[in-house]
Amino acid sequence: MTVNLTLVVLAGVLFGSGVVLVMARSIVRALLGVLLMGNGVNVVFLIASGAPGRAPIVSKSSAEGVVVGADGISDPLPQAMVLTAIVITLAVTAYCLALAHRSWQLSSSDNVEDDPEDARIGHLADTDQVPDTDYADTTDPHALADTATDDQGGDR
User: Fold this and answer.
1) Which of 27, 81, 137, 148 is the most buried (most CB within 10 A)?
2) What integer pLDDT is reported at residue 151 of this predicted model?
3) Domain total in the chain
């Protein structure tokens, strides 16, 4: 099987540009990155499907009435996988567009902001102060009594 170098380079460029765009803060750029990576997957499946010019299921020689062995039949799995990848890319595109639209409605921007909790955990990790757990010690009865309140807001 000969591989078309142009398609291999195209798949690499699509994946590389898609990864760069997914890492952006803008949801629309991330969506474009997902689309590019989805197209890169389709190109990889196209490369894996074999030599161009063959029919998806039956080769030209068997279509003319000549009986050939298993070599005359191409594998339909790559075409099925491309169709599946197209459907998955469409679903992810619709989801990302819904996220971008909702983000625009709420903040008039499609940039993803830093989460304060993630920033706090990152700061603790940088200073080597990451605790084993964020929960109070459940074996200490005084710690439980300090945090226990009833539904009205008073102490139990």
Assistant:
1) 27
2) 47
3) 1
